[in-house]
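Q: Give me a protein?
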Amino acid sequence: MTGPDSTDIRHLRRAIALAVETGDAGNRPFGAVIVDAAGAVVSEGANSVATSGDVTGHAELDAITTACAEGNTERMAGAVVYASGEPCPMCAAAMVWAGVRRVVFGAAATQFGAILADEGPRFALGCADVVGSAGVGIEVSGPHLDDEALEPFRRFVAEQHTRR
């Protein structure tokens, strides 16, 4: 597993910014950016579960669906997905099917799960477990950016308490 380089950090920070935006809109704070093998951004996504009512409205699925809808399915083969938080099993499986070669995430599920204590289910399988079980050689790198990656989750919880 390789650590993040300056390009990884830049795209992770964009995913975190997307997480802040969608968290401010009332969704759980998750953002994602897909970058193709040539280094160009293919699509971005944000969690929209609360605002759309679609329980599959996760950031990574949003980015994948957007890429497909825009005719960029082939550009995901060999791509990197940057996620503000560790992708759930559903999103990790979707990345396998999309042909992604690398996943880089900010906050680990155990880290943001401790902050979002009353917010949804917890899975025992991490992203690396899910993609590893597919046998397709996807690299998973994270957690990265420590407090910076956790800040959208803290902000979201503080906002939720303020709204109550």
In short: Strands lie at 31-35, 41-46, 80-85, 102-107, 139-141.
